[in-house]
């Protein structure tokens, strides 16, 4: 169990899908998503889906300990979707999610995206995630891309000002 996490030593690296700790954290992520959402409302991606050429994946580490993951899927040349954001249970509340989210927003800006979107659950389990996104400027919006209106989903967007 992690007593404290030194965010100053947090390293966010591209890739890592072949690392056993990453595979395990993504398994936990999917397991929670499936336990908290009806089957038709689970939009979390598994390892094979995260290998898409339209998705860039990052893992956040403190030394050799995996603390979180996140991904950015390109929907079109100006629009990206945040996918697979998850912080290890022992590291929650330490700023790992905020650091990953700032990293993804920064990459989206460098790519010239004008908008970032995401889907998360509407259930109580997902409240901390929705609070995190709101703190970083995301606001609720209608479904985007291929999503349909779903009472089990909350759709959010962040309009990115030109750099």
List strands and helices in order, with pairings.
Blueprint: E1 10-14, H1 20-36, H2 47-50, E2 55-62, E3 65-76, E4 79-87, H3 96-110, E5 115-121, H4 127-135, E6 139-140, E7 153-159
Parallel strand pairs: 4-5
Antiparallel strand pairs: 1-2, 2-3, 3-4, 5-7, 6-7
Characterise the protein shown here:
With 163 residues, this protein is an alpha+beta fold. It is built from four helices and seven strands; from the N terminus they run E-H-H-E-E-E-H-E-H-E-E. Strand 3 and strand 4 form a beta hairpin. The radius of gyration is 15 Å and the shape is globular. The N and C termini lie far apart (40 Å). The model has no long low-confidence stretch (mean pLDDT 89).
Please mark out the parts with pLDDT under 50 across 5 or more consecutive residues, or reply none: none
What is the H/E string? EHHEEEHEHEE
Order of strands side by side in the largest beta sheet? Answer: 1-2-3-4-5-7-6
Rg is: 15 Å
Largest sheet: 7 strands, mixed
SS elements, strand count: 7
Q: What share of residues are in beta strands?
A: 25-35%
- Estimate the mean pLDDT confidence: 89
Helix tally equals: 4
Shape field:
globular
Terminal Cα span: 40 Å
Helix content range of the residues, please? 25-40%
Structural class: alpha+beta
